Amino acid sequence: MAKSKSIYSREYGVFLDLLREEREAAGLTQIGLAKKLKETQTYVSKCERGERRIDTIETRKFCIAIGLHYPAFAAKLEAAIEQKAAAKKPAARR
């Protein structure tokens, strides 16, 4: 049986969680963010659920709308991915 390919990776899941957390921390609803992006609430929802994969330029637009400096978001994402990876590693035996 062939292994099915998915565009949804563990790292992308971390990205989506962080994007949603940052939106919520900014006090924005999906509707509020959609208005700032000049998009629909459905668009924001699909992006946050991973049904619609967003690229770097779209991520930057999300950050601007949220009021977050894009490089700061990228640094938070990197730290979150590393933290998730470290949590998955089994503890060394002594």
Q: What's this entry about, in short?
A:
This protein has helices spanning 10-25, 30-37, 41-49, 56-66, 70-88.
Q: Name the CATH homologous superfamily.
A: lambda repressor-like DNA-binding domains
Shape designation? globular
Number of strands: 0
Beta fraction: under 5%
CATH architecture: Orthogonal Bundle
How many separate domains? Answer: 1
Separate helix tally: 5
Distance from N terminus to C terminus (CA atoms, Å) equals: 39 Å
- CATH topology, which one? 434 Repressor (Amino-terminal Domain)
Q: Helicity level, as a percent range?
A: 55-70%
The computed structural class is mainly alpha
Low-confidence stretches: none
Major beta sheet summary:
none
User: What is the radius of gyration computed over CA atoms, rounded to a whole number of angstroms?
Assistant: 15 Å
Domain HTH cro/C1-type: 19-73
Organism: Silvibacterium bohemicum
GO molecular function: DNA binding
Protein name: Ribosome-binding protein aMBF1 (Putative translation factor)
Supply the key terms:
94 residues, mainly alpha, 434 Repressor (Amino-terminal Domain), 5 helices, globular
Task: Please specify the SSE layout and strand pairing.
Layout: H1 10-25, H2 30-37, H3 41-49, H4 56-66, H5 70-88
Helix pairs in contact: 1-5, 2-3
Structure description:
- There is one protein chain.
- With 94 residues, this protein is an all-alpha fold.
- The protein has one domain (10-82): 434 Repressor (Amino-terminal Domain), CATH 1.10.260.
- It has five helices and no strands.
